[in-house]
Amino acid sequence: MKIIQNIIYWLFVCCLPVLLITSTICLEVNELSLYEYGFDKYEISQDTGIDKIQLRSVAQHLIDYFNLRADTVQITVVKGDEEFNLFNEREVIHLGDVRSLIQLDYWVQRGAFLLIVICALALFFGLRVGWWMLVRGLFWGSFITMGLMVALALWALFGFERLFILFHLVSFTNEYWILDPARDYLIRLFPGGFFYDAALFGFGAIMLEALLIGGIAFGILRLRGWERREKN
Question: Which pTM was predicted?
């Protein structure tokens, strides 16, 4: 019984980093202001000749596509007097792969949340552990999350290009993610600096989330310890 309890407990602990990471990815993917921040910072309108209003429409269309609200990622834009399809065939295929990856993130997020709930119910009602054990699990889950984010943030600071390439090699089974800024608008819309910024924002957000949860859990555990000492 103790072995089962430990398995469920550590599954509960390990699901918290997964939930925080996938939830933050979900938020970033759907945050229109993040796209606009990148467009402004890297002067995408000047580089591509596509005005800011159209860039905002492109970003919103990508969000809709990633969330299955649009059937195709292709969108028509106007530059000068010319109207044309923004993405070529290679980019369309890659963005389809990205959508599949984002949908997988959503499913992992839901699965992690469901597992946390099931594990918590199993520990509290099934195995009759004290509520403080769940709080301790949240503390350790937050601690693990912060450690992982610190490691990834340092890796990004000192070797983001290698981390970026490794992510693509692991995530995609083809080479359609290798784009040419001379002919592919996708990489001009979202240069490497955009993903660097998004990664650091994500790492920071996840660390803050973990710090908040872990701090509350630590405070509750300290209060419980103080109350127990007072009773003794």
Answer: 0.93
